[in-house]
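Q&A log
Question type: sequence-to-structure
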Amino acid sequence: QVQLVESGGGLVQAGGSLRLSCAASGIMVSINHMDWYRQPPGKQREVVAVITSGESTNYAESVKGRFTISRDNAKNTVYLQMNSLKPEDTAVYYCHSRDPSMLFSDTWGQGTQVTVSS
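Response status: OK
Response body:
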């Protein structure tokens, strides 16, 4: 019932750009905190960007100035614009939601692969 579906991943050369999309159903992105996580090969999953229901955003230091998180409430979709990509950005990227009321469990998308070649 609750589902997050990521898209937009792929192969890109260093310095290039990609935009990831996270289409939500069963939840409203407008009233949830929405996050993007990534998991590089052989490494732990880490948060890279956050947008709250109050529109504030936060970024990991490694992506600050290069990545931008946004949402379109009418489309119930969250985006991650990734510019100036580096090989170390290579990872599976996951969309994630948190209910600020704490009534519901977190929801994770299935992930989309981003590969940045040097």
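Response note: The chain is about 0% helix and 50% strand.
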